[in-house]
Amino acid sequence: MSDHTARIDHVVLWVSDPIGSAEFYERILGTQPVRLAEFAAGQVSFPSVRLNEDTIIDLMPQTMAEHMKMLPGADKSAGHPVNHVCVALPADAFDALLARLVEGEVPISEISHDSFGARGPAKRSFYFRDPDGNVFEARHYD
């Protein structure tokens, strides 16, 4: 079966400690590490975490910035602000994430209602930061 639906394959975040970031995302967001052991062994240049079957978040060490040669100026993207990455979850996973953040004493924004997104107005949403200051929004539609 071929699915030609456009979707986000991955997002690359600059991080200071890829292993620590992977642990944060696994503990807080419930992601699964990808290539973490290989990164720790020096076999690959960055690890990732799997958000779902279709999407991963690459955790690019800031020290790799000088190796970014795919486009002129790409090496200067380390530390370049991305406004935020939004993760849409089912209501129960949203509540579980919120509880883990509160339990882990990770600061969160107020809960918003009916904010617009890819599927229309979200029932609830909020924002939080990862250890490197990257901003995430969590939301649910159902």
Automatic annotation (TrEMBL):
InterPro entries recorded: Glyas_Bleomycin-R_OHBP_Dase (IPR029068), Glyas_Fos-R_dOase_dom (IPR004360), GlyoxalaseI/FosfomycinResist (IPR050383), VOC_core (IPR037523)
Native source organism of the sequence: Streptomyces cupreus
Protein name, as recorded: VOC family protein
Segments forming domain VOC: 7-141
SUPFAM superfamilies: Glyoxalase/Bleomycin resistance protein/Dihydroxybiphenyl dioxygenase
Cleavable signal peptide: none
Any Pfam family matching the protein: Glyoxalase
Taxonomy, superkingdom: Bacteria
